[in-house]
Amino acid sequence: MYDYIKGRLSKITAKYIVVEAGGLGYILNVANPYSFSDQMNQDIQIYLHQFIREDAHLLYGFHDEDEKAVFLNLISVSGIGPTTALAIIAVDDNEGLVNAIDHSDIKYLTKFPKIGKKTAQQMVLDLAGKFIEVPQENGKVAKTVSAGNEQLEEAIEALLALGYKASELKKIRTFFEGTNETAERYIKQALKMLMK
Q1: pTM tops 0.85, yes or no
Q2: The domain that contains 100 carries what CATH number?
Q3: Do 86 and 105 belong to one domain?
Q4: 81: closest CA among 98, 111, 58, 110?
Q5: What is the β-pairing status of strands 133-135 and 141-143?
Q6: CA geometry: angle at 156 spanning 48 and 159, to 5°?
Q7: Which parts of the chain span the membrane according to its record (predicted)?
Q8: 186 within a domain of the structure (yes/no)
């Protein structure tokens, strides 16, 4: 599995970009290839997700880790493949997406390409409360943890990976705001609180 690639952006097409690293040109499927236009022939870092099918090994690229996280959440839903997830991300309205999922706005979700009513309902069922991020003014998704407490952010992410919902972790975040502990101690204390 890959996390990211660093290399020179050597080609932009309507469906993908090519990043040259170590003498190889990697085809990266991205939501909007032309959003990389100002970086043509420059060294860039792209976050990756590898998708393996019977007939192909594909790489999907993302501007940042938040965009990748949204993509991974989307493809976890039955009925949403990587191409559809990229189409949803390309709309660049993560704020609207998260709000629609958390508020069961089926009408909004069916506006995305290849998303019917049944798939929209499945999105709500599978993803409601799972986005730990909240929208910023520019429409991109950002972590709710303040930038100054990386240990708390890591602990929250670990708790999410354990299966706790973002809505459950809001009280944990509020409780620990302004404190200074290691991620391990935050996790242990949070688990005690969640088990009560």
Answers
A1: no
A2: 1.10.150.20
A3: yes
A4: 58
A5: antiparallel
A6: 90
A7: none
A8: yes
**181 falls within a domain:** yes
Question: Which residue bears the tokens 């089926």?
Answer: 106
80: exposed, middle or buried (Cβ count in 10 Å: 0-12, 13-18, 19+): buried
CA distance linking residue 45 with residue 8, whole number of Å: 9
Q: Following CA atoms 22, 36, 63, 47 in sequence, which dihedral angle do they give, to the nearest 10 degrees?
A: -20
Residues 84, 114: contact at Cβ < 8 Å? Answer: yes
Q: Give the span between the Cα atoms of 88 and 82, in whole angstroms.
A: 10
pLDDT tens digits for 143-160? 433 344 788 888 888 777
**Separation CA 91–CA 122 (nearest Å):** 20
In single-letter form, the type of residue at position 109 comes to L
The CATH number that applies at residue 38 is: 2.40.50.140
The residue with tokens 């870092």 is 45
In this structure, what token pair is assigned to residue 160?
């999410």
If asked whether residues 8 and 54 sit together in one domain, one would say yes
Q: What is the dihedral of CA 62, 81, 122, 63, to 10 degrees?
A: 0
> Is residue 135 one of the residues assigned to a domain?
no
The DSSP output letter for 103 is T
**pLDDT tens, 108-140?**
999 888 899 999 999 999 998 777 544 443 444
DSSP secondary structure code for residue 34 in this structure = G
Distances (CA, A) of 169 to 46, 147, 194: 30, 17, 9
